[in-house]
Amino acid sequence: MAYSAKAGFRNQLRALLPKIVLSPTIAIIAIFIYGFILFTTYLSFTNSRMLPKYDWVGWQNYTKLFKLNTWGIAVDNLLVFGSLYIIICCVLGLFLAILLDQKIRNEGFIRTIYLYPMALSFIVTGIAWKWFLDPGIGLEAVMHSWGWESFKFDWIKNRDMAVYTIVIAAVWQTSGFVMATFLAGLRGIDGEILRAAEVDGASTFALYRRIVIPQLRPAFMSAFVVLAHMAIKSYDLVVALTNGGPGIATQMPATFMYSYTFTRNQMGVGAASAEIMLLTIAAVIVPYLWSELREKK
Fold first, then answer.
1. How many CB atoms lie within 10 A of CB 168?
2. Rounded CA gap, 297 and 276, in Å?
3. Cα–Cα distance, 64 to 61 (Å, whole number)
4. Whose C-alpha in 117, 151, 164, 177 is 20 to 30 A from the C-alpha of 89?
5. pLDDT average, residue stretch 24-47
6. How far is CA 223 from CA 12, 89, 290, in A?
7. Distance CA 38, CA 31 (A)
8. Does the pLDDT of residue 6 top 90, yes or no?
């Protein structure tokens, strides 16, 4: 009887042990992630300025936010940056993945070179590209020193073109990750299907258009979700590369949120912008998770 009770206690302890070990982590996540999300949501409905206040003002901060010209510029920049960033990364990543899938020599070395930028932080990438694109010390200065005096590449100083320099730097850093995602998808395609299509006389172009690329849908969806999430919350790359300038020409929602919350002392408006960013990310991620869970069922 005593042995049975002891065995039952051990079984209960064995079942509870994973929950006991994980409970501190779950508690920390609940407090410092979801708790602060709820706190930020509450602040977005208050008149908080330099410090949190708890006077309820309803939708006033959201109304003020969408009337601000700076926020409109930030949203427009995000649309330009996000769309170009996602499209170019997907096209370039797919192209590189198809090249590597041809069983070329030194594939491991080439793949490492493509993936290397992902090992760098966006701060390092931003500073490096800032030096490279600076007309005084970068590409333009080098071309002038080589005798090409008419060469001009001052996008980083041009209000109309500066946002595209962020696209260039972001694509350079992330396209290797997209390449790896697509390469994994290509390696997972059943070779028998491809060989059967070749026997039936399908051209290489038709093979990729009708068989290979449609089967890469999960890889496309994964890449889109990750890239969209990174684009929406892009902050460090923008600060390191252009600092939102010239003027506010490359302002993004994340830099807007930081500026209004911590430098302009309008915490309520900053919290409202953070909530809009959170809802935008949720609008991208939630449908993806829902479709993935539905397919598994």
1. 18
2. 32
3. 5
4. 151
5. 89
6. 42, 9, 16
7. 10
8. no
56 phi and psi angles, rounded to 5 deg = -70, 125
**pLDDT at 167 exceeding the cut of 90:** yes
Measure the CA–CA gap between 129 and 242, rounded to whole angstroms. Answer: 10
- Apex 26 CA angle, 22 and 32, nearest 5: 145
Phi and psi torsions of 102, nearest 5°: -85, 15
Q: How high is the pLDDT of residue 9?
A: 64
Say which residue the tokens 């390449």 belong to.
Answer: 179
Distance CA 254, CA 74 (A): 9
Name the CA radius of gyration of the chain, rounded. 25
Closest by CA position to 127, among listed 235, 231, 236: 236
Q: Structure tokens of 274?
A: 């953070």
SS3 245: coil
Q: Could you tell me which residue, 4 or 29, shows the higher pLDDT?
A: 29
97: buried, middle or exposed (CB in 10 Å: 19+, 13-18, 0-12)?
A: buried
d(CA 23, CA 191): 45
Which pTM value belongs to this model? 0.88
Beta strands in the chain (DSSP E): none
Closest C-alpha among 210, 257, 249 to residue 233: 257
